[in-house]
Amino acid sequence: MLKRLDIKNYVIIETLEIDFSGGMNIVTGETGAGKSIILGALNLILGARADSGSLVNKEKKCVIEGIFAPGTVKEIDSFLNSNDLDRLSEITIRREITANGKSRAFINDTPVNLPQLQQLSSLLVDLHQQFDTLQLGDTDFQVHVLDALAGNGKLLIQYQAAFAGWQQNKRQLEQLKEQQAQFNKESDYHQFQYDELNEAGFKENELEETDATLKLLENSEGIKSALARAYNELEEGEQPLVQQLKSILNTLNNYSNYHTSLPELINRLFSAQAELRDIAAELEHLSSTIHYDPEKIETLNERLSLGYKLQKKHGVQSTNELLTIQKALEEKLQEVLHIQEDIDALEATTLQQLKAVETLAETIAAARKKQVAPFEKKVAVLLTQVGMPNALLKVSFEKKPPGMNGADAVDFLFDANKSGSFKPVNKVASGGELSRLMLCIKSLVAERMNLPTLIFDEIDTGISGEAAKQVGIIMKELAASRQVICITHQPQIAGRADAHYFVYKEAAGSQVRTGIRQLDTDERIIAVAKMLSGEKPTAAALENAKEMVVSS
Question: Which CATH number fits domain 1-133+451-518: 3.30.230.10, 3.30.70.1290, 3.40.50.300, 2.40.50.140?
């Protein structure tokens, strides 16, 4: 409920503070006194767009603040949690507007954006103005009305969970089928590429090793000649180095006992001689393994040419990169084989889920249909009470593909004159008719839909007498379990207030300001009497007003 509304520097309101009761709050006042201004200020904290032209004093900012008691509404807790906002015993919503038109919004002193403000305010306040009938023509609202009457709450939660699971798997199935179509589109090319690499049969580092072998073979004669020459110089020439070292060793050995450094040098020469002899043997062996082989050279060139061609085709530089591509292609071809299995399995799952969704939808639909006839009758009775005896409401009920709220297309059709011609309510009913129709519907479902604070702005326009009295009775019944705030010109409605607020204008120097005050019982009687008979109420009007106020 809205506990308090503070308004500062808005239109012709300098400062205004209103403490509302939890029951039926009635706001009255002369035309032009500022009732709509107060409602405009309330609209700002509900998320309406701001206008810097609304500021009284351009030197100060406009501040509108509403304090709400949220009660135990789960949706409010969920909103606060999902937006990282503190859960307090009261919710304070504040809107600030500067002279340059910039606006800021706060929930419990935490800055929020306009969509967040609008989302929370829709959970706290149900504002219904004359000609504001979009909700009544909204299919979701119409379905929610039948669900509230049918008590479908738990069943809907179960259905929506099943529907969400079905939709998730359905989307996954569509993605798999798109993936399969793409795979099929590319599979021939992938198969060709894979076959080409598979037939080549390259091994790890093969092309690099082939290139080295080919260079060796192409230079085999020069290498063999160099090896032979080196061996010859070491072992078989006119003066082989190995023999020369042997001769030097023999000469030095004759004098090894005469100098202390000679034995070490002799040992080093002996080691060098042995190393050179070993090198000569390896040179001879290496030479014996190298042969010029033109056929092998041709084979290796062909192999290398194939490898370089495939490297260029795939934009890589090594054998191992080619093998990586080959493996990736093989995996893609395997995916083509497995994806159909996944599709078949998921199709079976989604089919089972769809059957479960359809079964739940049928159960929900049956419960809704059961409420249609009683609902139509009750609305007809209430419409008669509020001065529309010839008006009828008819619920159109058709099957549609499953959606988040079931598989029913619900439409409220209206006939104002028992003509037998029913059309969608928002296309044929007048503003006043729609307002009273909405009041009747909300009064039937208020308990079960957990409606928030209900605010009615002059929805009683165009009615009087018994119709106005019945509107007052319905509103009073609504106010028994929730807060109702109503701006009215009808004494029959005003007389039923739990708290009556009077809006007035007063001069403040050269300016006019709007004020508001809560009336006591005697003031209420006078205010209602004036609404009955004019500025100077008669004794009969006062007596009538007293009866209205006291009996309420």
Answer: 3.40.50.300
